[in-house]
Design goal:
Blueprint lengths: L1 E4 L7 E4 L9 E9 L3 H8 L17 E8 L11 E4 L2 E2 L5 H4 L14 E2 L11 E5 L3 E3 L6 H21 L6 E5 L3 H12 L4 E6 L2 H9 L5 E4 L4 H8 L7 E4 L3
Parallel strand pairs: 10-11, 10-13, 11-12
Antiparallel strand pairs: 1-2, 3-4, 3-8, 4-5, 5-9, 6-7
Helix pairs in contact: 3-4
Bound molecules: zinc ion (2 copies).
Length: 245
């Protein structure tokens, strides 16, 4: 099959690699969508930088596909099932893994591995995935929807769950790129009646507002705090999520 490796020089290395063999607790997925995250560009494509080393594996940590083969001990998942792959495989035993926060798993590689970073990811015809990282894709969502959910929406959702967002809250979203827009959409779906977005780029604000991700936009700068206080009658926002960092 064909797989994409990112040498870190703003190049894409397309290689012929073997289709992986399925082991116990694993499934083989035919990739149907595999999107590119901002962190792929910053920390892998333009250079191998940051605290999480890239091991020269097949890139892509936002995979979405269809089960074509199941290994031993994967009872319940069927060939043909559509799944999103959560991008971290953790130890499965620490408190963070038990809570579903595998990204905060306390184990080190090779026990904790990120798809597309330290183990083969989605930019290939097939992906070998651990069953524990497969999330069923609901019928109403396309494979591209699923790939976008894998990292961007999931990150936003985890933050909103931790904040316990509900109809009580006006939510401030700082930075309305893809993750910020997901935060706004999810906050509203969780009951928030009002989402205020802040961004340095007023075009981003206009677009996010046109898509219903935010209700009001404030251009970042020295006057932003005053503008937010004015919009909220001096109360400010109950929940603030930074998506600009
Ligand atoms: Zn990502
Ligand atoms: Zn763990």
């Amino acid at each position: 099959m064909t797989g994409v490796v990112l040498p870190g020089s703003s190049d894409v290395d397309i290689r012929e690699v073997p289709v992986p063999a399925v082991g116990p607790g694993q499934v083989l997925l035919r990739m149907r969508a595999s999107t590119i995250c901002g962190s792929d560009l910053r920390a892998v494509y333009h250079g191998h930088v940051g605290p999480e080393p890239y091991w020269g594996v097949i890139a892509g940590h936002e995979p979405c596909g269809e089960v074509v083969e199941v290994g031993a001990g994967t009872g319940g998942i069927r060939v043909g099932e559509r799944v999103v792959v959560y991008h971290i495989s953790g130890c499965g035993r620490c408190a963070e893994c038990h809570a579903g926060y595998m990204i905060s798993c306390t184990a080190e590689p090779p026990v904790k591995l990120a798809y597309g970073w330290q183990r083969d990811g989605g930019h290939a015809d097939y992906l070998l995935a651990d069953l524990a990282t497969c999330v069923t894709l609901p019928d109403g969502l396309s494979f591209i929807d699923g790939a976008c959910v894998a990292c961007g929406f999931g990150t936003a959702y985890e933050a909103l769950c931790r904040a316990g967002v509900s109809g009580r809250d006006t939510v401030l979203v700082t930075g309305v790129g893809p993750v910020g827009m997901a935060t706004g959409m999810l906050a509203k779906a969780m009951g928030s009646q009002r989402v205020i977005g802040v961004d340095v780029d007023s075009g981003r604000l206009t677009f996010a507002e046109s898509q219903g991700c935010i209700d009001e936009g404030v251009t970042a700068g020295a006057d932003a705090l005053e503008a937010i206080l004015e919009l909220t009658g001096g109360e400010g926002c109950e929940v603030s999520v930074d998506c600009s960092g």
